[in-house]
Description:
The structure is a homodimer.
Chain A: H1 3-16, E1 24-30, H2 34-47, E2 50-56, H3 58-71, H4 86-94, E3 97-102, H5 115-124, H6 126-133, E4 136-141, H7 145-151, H8 155-166, H9 170-186, E5 189-196, E6 199-207, E7 214-216, E8 231-234, E9 237-245, E10 249-251, E11 254-264, E12 267-275, H10 277-284, E13 293-299, H11 311-314, E14 320-326, E15 345-351, E16 356-360, E17 363-367, E18 370-371
Parallel strand pairs in A: 1-2, 1-3, 3-4
Antiparallel strand pairs in A: 5-6, 5-16, 6-9, 7-8, 8-13, 9-11, 10-11, 11-12, 13-14, 14-15, 16-17, 17-18
Helix pairs in contact in A: 1-2, 4-6, 7-8
Cofactor (chains A, B): Zn(2+); Co(2+); Mg(2+)
GO molecular function (chains A, B): aminopeptidase activity
Keywords (chains A, B): Aminopeptidase, Hydrolase, Metal-binding, Metalloprotease, Protease
Amino acid sequence: MDERVREHAEVLVDWSARIEAGDDVVVSVAEDAHELGVAVAEALGERGANATMMYGSAELSRAYLKGVEAGTDGDVDADDFDSDPAVERAMFEAADAYLRVGGGRNTTAVADVDRPTRQAYAKARQGVREARMDTDWVSTVHPTRSLAQQAGMAYEEYQEFVYDAVLRDWESLADEMAEMKSVLDAGDEVRIVTERDGAPDTDVTMSIAGRTAVNSAASVAYDSHNLPSGEVFTAPYDTEGEVFFDVPMTIDATRVRNVHLAFEGGEVVDFSAESGEEAVADVLDTDDGARRLGELGIGMNRGIDRFTDSILFDEKMGDTVHLAVGRAYDACLPEGESGNDSAVHVDMISDVSERSRMEVDGEVVQRNGTFRWEDGFEAEN
Amino acid sequence: MDERVREHAEVLVDWSARIEAGDDVVVSVAEDAHELGVAVAEALGERGANATMMYGSAELSRAYLKGVEAGTDGDVDADDFDSDPAVERAMFEAADAYLRVGGGRNTTAVADVDRPTRQAYAKARQGVREARMDTDWVSTVHPTRSLAQQAGMAYEEYQEFVYDAVLRDWESLADEMAEMKSVLDAGDEVRIVTERDGAPDTDVTMSIAGRTAVNSAASVAYDSHNLPSGEVFTAPYDTEGEVFFDVPMTIDATRVRNVHLAFEGGEVVDFSAESGEEAVADVLDTDDGARRLGELGIGMNRGIDRFTDSILFDEKMGDTVHLAVGRAYDACLPEGESGNDSAVHVDMISDVSERSRMEVDGEVVQRNGTFRWEDGFEAEN
């Protein structure tokens, strides 16, 4: 076995999920993630944890949902699913941790399942999802040929890309991100400006007063549930202005490029996209909360050096900022207070490596991708 | 998809497990059983059942157990495992049915795990096993290259072999087996005689008075949990005489051939084997119950036309009889009575297609493989 697979498993089990002897751990292994599953199983055995292995197969999910469509003559609504699936709820309620090891055979394996079917299924499984998110859950991926293809990369090249992002000195990145977190925690307002062709294409302000930033250092000990991670995020509100997202992405199987959102009074009042505009419209029309921001995230993982059309990596990349419309994370809110609520949470990303600045309460914190505690930072332009 | 895969899934879901709308079904999918897993998922969706997919990977089990060995410096006992693994117990307690879809990459995948480690793990998981066996469980296999190799067959040839055994008219086989069951239920004593080179090599009698035979027709509706099945079995006692098992088999990764057992007063008092004798000795030395019979089974599935070194198929083959040392099945015993108890249940098989007879209370029921209700049966030799 490639030694990096074993190291990946150790980072996942020890740094990310903090597994200890006696922990009850549920592991979901995707179709082509067998090898990382083997390494994770070995690490769990060595730590003295209990391991329960699920098969996280998108092709099996698709088959199940196509079966439901066939069994209901294609007219599927939430009533066609059990609203309280007993087995998985019982399983996650008994679990201390959940490790999702992604890496299937085809990133578009469920493309031919009707959207209402998928939505009804997701709705019926909300209780299962909540029980799962009450565990110390962590999501990662094994580098597969299917993900390499989605990234437009050769297989070996993609393996290096993934391990550069995952096998980091997380302790030291967490220290650096703590600086960004302290700036956001102390601040009341964030302004982001980017320029293209000499004129601003993004100029947006948002309030973060009273909100707590999460130092997402790829560990449950930091309220962080992705491996890789490497972002600092908070839950903004009262957004005003214009944002341009130049990083290509896929929303619900639709390729989306160059999204523009205009905010007034905290809500999206206008939008456009160079391609995939209907997918953006669908997101914004989901519910009231889908037109408000749920997240401001600042990518700080410089092990990620390119966009691969995967949100797990793209939003953590150094020199990027992302905003999500929809649901806010509780970890960013004062105890007992609920933030923006929505059935969706869709991240969109801007490259800020050039002609950009981020201000907190009027002070520049990052210019052209460089933070003010880094060499080469220019306070004035 | 090969239409036979879909038919296999339908037999499993409808005939074997009797799945209905709303049932909570746990499916375990082995490494190379993905395709049958897809067909099962689709059938479950169509029936309106809930489906939870486990990954039944022997390679992950091996990795986990090797991890436990590494974490305990190799000196593993039952205390090194959680005696009540919460997740899987909760899962099976919530489940109505459990479908085990076998078919891994390597039938000897756990060969280098120490036997005490495997035994300690099995012991710690007894509660999970009991919860699983309290569901409507069914075990089947997807024809894989690894199983074809174990059977000594080409892949396509093995596929035909499996589907010939699985895709039967189960209703009509169940009717035929009901005849055999009624003979055993009414009888007090079974005698089996086989001859080789003009002299008996098997001549054994056993009591079956008060015991109930199971018509194992590959369906939970018949107390039968294997697909394929096709045997009638009961729980004999007070065994006397000699038995010769000429069908090759594998016991705990050891190839065993031509086992001979001598019984007195219900117990094995002498034994030999042409090869693998030490594996037979290990079985018989497990505990007191391992020297007594737990099962007499009569193979009646004529879709199985050869031995493949897999007990799932071999013991169901028409023209065979098998005896198991060790644990008896509760279904064969009077309500509330417990039969022979043991940690093991090891089946051994005799070919009775030639020079053989089975008598129940002195009347010949089967001669040279032909039952008395079949054409060509000879009451007298």
